[in-house]
Amino acid sequence: MAIELKQQLKLSQQLVMTPQLQQAIKLLQLSRLELVGVVQQELQENPVLEESMDGDEELPSDVAKEQEGEAASLDEPSLGEVPELSEAASAAAETAEAAGEAPDISEAEKIADIDWQNYMDAYPQTGMAVQREDDERRSFEATLTRRPSLSEHLEWQLQISEFDGSERRAATWIIGNLDEHGYLRSGLEEIARQSGEAEEVIAAALAKVQTLDPPGVAARDLAECLLLQLRSLGILEGLVVEIVRNHLDSLQRRDFKKIAKAVDATVEEVAEAARLIGRLEPRPGRAFGGEDPIYITPDIHVYKIGDEFHILLNEDGLPKLRINHLYRDVLSRDSKVEKGTRDYVQDKVRAAMWLIKSIHQRQRTIYKVMQSIIKYQRDFFEKGISHLKPLNLRDVAEDIGMHESTVSRVTTNKYAHTPQGIFELKYFFNSSINRFDGDAIASESVKEKIRKIISAEDSRRPLSDQRIAEMLKRSNIDIARRTVTKYRESMHILSSTKRRQVG
User: Fold this and answer.
1) In terms of Cα–Cα distance, which of 335, 466, 391, 416 is closest to 32?
2) pLDDT in tens, 29-81
3) Angle CA(31)–CA(37)–CA(43) in degrees, nearest 5?
4) Contact at 8 Å (CB) between 400 and 369?
5) Based on the number of CB atoms within 10 Å of its own CB, is 7 exposed (0-12), middle (13-18) or buried (19 or more)?
6) d(C-alpha 297, C-alpha 291), whole Å
7) Could you give the C-alpha distances from 71 to 68, 74, 379, in angstroms and in order?
8) What digits encode the pLDDT tens for the residues 86-110?
9) In whole angstroms, what is the distance from residue 18 CA to residue 338 CA?
10) Measured between alpha carbons, how far is 67 from 358 in angstroms, rounded to an integer?
11) Do 149 and 214 contact (CB within 8 A), yes or no?
12) Domain ranges across the chain
């Protein structure tokens, strides 16, 4: 069989991710704050883009036709299908610009001729602050502050406490070996080897550090931490100290009967001691650790006006973009510029137009997805979490005529302010739990029912997971005990044995 070369034509289809499509997908999954950051970066990098407070401007005819052809290939809905984006134009500014008015030069010159320094000295006004020179003004960074860390708080106390030279050096090493919870995780021998101080000096310094604020700091385990806090309260002996020293494991299991038998006390006395121990702080460094809270800014606002729900996209801080008119003149037909310059400007204009269209497309898609969610979850928006229905991405994707991956990107890291509170868009998509009558209920609604059942239980006789499952079955919800356990743990609710209270 001879080997030979042949040529043949073959037609095939393949999906090509153009840079424009990649940009649209990237913008679609960004939150509002992330989108503002991207837009600000584009404003700095693309000289064609600028912020606009006016309406949309017309583009050069050749660029507009090219962009219309590219937009038509994407088969996107028209801009008229959704409400207008943010309008923040100033009527006074528009009137002045339309009339071509200019400031009175003579009046401006008169104002500029005034010696304001001598004027202020000659005519002082009560209550007016004296203006500083530029180099004397405090910068914005100088007015900022932050919460001190645990180590900084302890080192500040170290400077005003009675430590000799070697103990102060040893205390500095001890503070440096504390974890974020305030516990000392290194042994005395290791600290002595690191610092070069004697182990006796390390032990003496540790005893003094443990007297600093917050109480319980520099403890090596939970029992020592609690004993240090009891000592700061003046409790040096008694039932509470005995329980912390020898029966902490039984206390964590809420086995009061075993503790009462071991310490020769009543169950009520053990329960009272347990309540006192429960008010102590197991993590002394909690107040100094962690980052400052991050507050959620919703991307969507849902308002109920009459019997209808209205959607308002949050565009606070999002600049409205347009093409700079100076670069539009470069692309005009009568412009006499070099071909390289014209090609550069045309590429930048094309990139700017794609960014603007991608942002508009993102806003339209978010609006459609929220409309569909309200359509399926109307009972939730009107009555609350207990009326949440099962919903998946496919239902919304089929309703708005888009792919599931698009809906998934839209609902990622985005929050909606609703009459029932602020919820992530992913919250409205949850699995279903069957009912005995053939209907289904959302898993979040089942969690809410479990939370209400536990909150209404008798604390002295808490309900087991099996008992809760039986109660839900009487409410026409087919659920297993292990599912109740999974939902309870996801809500960070303790088991029945650890929820039990005595007295």
Assistant:
1) 416
2) 888 888 888 889 888 988 888 887 654 444 444 445 544 444 343 333 333 33
3) 135
4) yes
5) exposed
6) 18
7) 5, 5, 37
8) 333 333 333 333 334 444 444 444 4
9) 28
10) 12
11) no
12) 150-287, 432-499
H-run or E-run covering 255: none
CA distance 345 to 210: 68
Q: With contact defined as beta carbons under 8 Å apart, do 45 and 383 qualify?
A: no
Q: For residue 340, which amino acid is it?
A: G
What DSSP designation does 229 have? Answer: H
CB proximity list for 501: less than 8 A, separation 6 or greater: 271, 459, 460
Q: Give dist(CA 267, CA 276) in Å, integer.
A: 14
**Amino acid present at 65:** K
Question: Which of 411, 410, 447, 446 lies closest to 429 in space, CA to CA?
Answer: 411
The arithmetic mean of pLDDT across residues 218-225, rounded, is 93
Contact assessment for residue 25 and residue 409, using Cβ atoms and an 8 Å cutoff: yes
Where do we find the tokens 């700079």? 324
Q: Please write the tens of the pLDDT for every residue from 236-256.
A: 888 999 999 999 988 888 888
Query: What tokens were used for 193?
Result: 């080897």
In three-state secondary structure terms, 293 is: coil
| 470 Cβ contact list (under 8 Å, min separation 6) | none
The CATH code that applies to domain 432-499 is 1.10.10.60
DSSP 416: E
Residue 426 near residue 412, CB atoms below 8 Å: yes
Which are the contacts of 440, defined by CB distance < 8 A and separation ≥ 6? 389, 390, 432, 433, 434
CB atoms within 10 A of CB 61: 11
Tell me which residue of 130, 135, 103 sits closest to 117, measured CA to CA.
130
Of the two residues 333 and 390, the one the predictor is more confident about is 390
Neighbours of 218 (CB within 10 A): 25
End-to-end CA distance of the chain: 96
User: Can you tell me the distance from the alpha carbon of 29 to that of 250, in angstroms, rounded to the nearest whole number?
Assistant: 49
- What pTM did the predictor assign? 0.62
Tokens 């170290």 belong to residue:
158
CA distance 460 to 118: 80
Which of 16-25, 196-205, 340-349 has the largest mean confidence?
A: 196-205
Q: Nearest 5°: phi and psi at 210?
A: -70, -10
Main-chain dihedrals φ then ψ at residue 451, nearest 5 degrees? -65, -40
Residue with tokens 């089942």: 446
Question: Pairing relation of β-strands 432-434 and 321-323?
Answer: unpaired
**Could you say which DSSP state residue 233 is in?**
T
Tokens 């801009």, residue located? 79
259, amino acid identity:
I
